[in-house]
Write a structure and sequence with these properties.
Layout (H helix, E strand, L loop, with lengths): L1 H20 L1 E3 L5 E3 L8 H22 L4 H32 L9 E6 L7 E7 L2 E9 L8 E7 L5 E6 L7
Parallel strand pairs: 5-7
Antiparallel strand pairs: 1-2, 3-4, 3-6, 4-5, 6-7
Helix pairs in contact: 1-2, 2-3
Length: about 170
Amino acid sequence: MGVVLLVIGLVGLTMTVLSLIGLDIDAAFDISFDFADSGIGLLSLLTPFVTGFGLIAGGLMTFGHTSTALALGAGAVTGLVLAAIAGVLLSYLLRAGAELPSVDLVGSRVRVVEPVGPTHLGTGEVQTETGARQISITADEDYVLGEHVRVTAKLDDRNVYHVQRLPYDQLA
């Protein structure tokens, strides 16, 4: 039984790695994968419990020759504590993210900090009420480092903005 619990713990570690690179399961048990987006979901809350429970209980039973009841109890307490810590942390992150003001960048002046063109995304720096912010930009023509452009639109369902050259009277 100890080996089985160790395997459960290793599956939990695998779930942790997968959730860090973008795999998630929502409340309706739909599985989604968004590479490099380690969002908050059911998998993020379930993983610490599974990992802590399996590794502690399995380790105690396999390597410590502890009784089954004591090992399962220690594993359950460890798993619940880790899940509670994850829940508090995720709750804090959700509240912190909700406190950030939403800024409409369409029409804003942007300085190109990474070249952009029709075939590749670039990076631009825009000044907002909360300070300088870097955004991903795309354009219909090439712009090089240091050029100033204007945001003309935000692409649907992406955090990418389309930019165009500023009129001559606004270049300074």
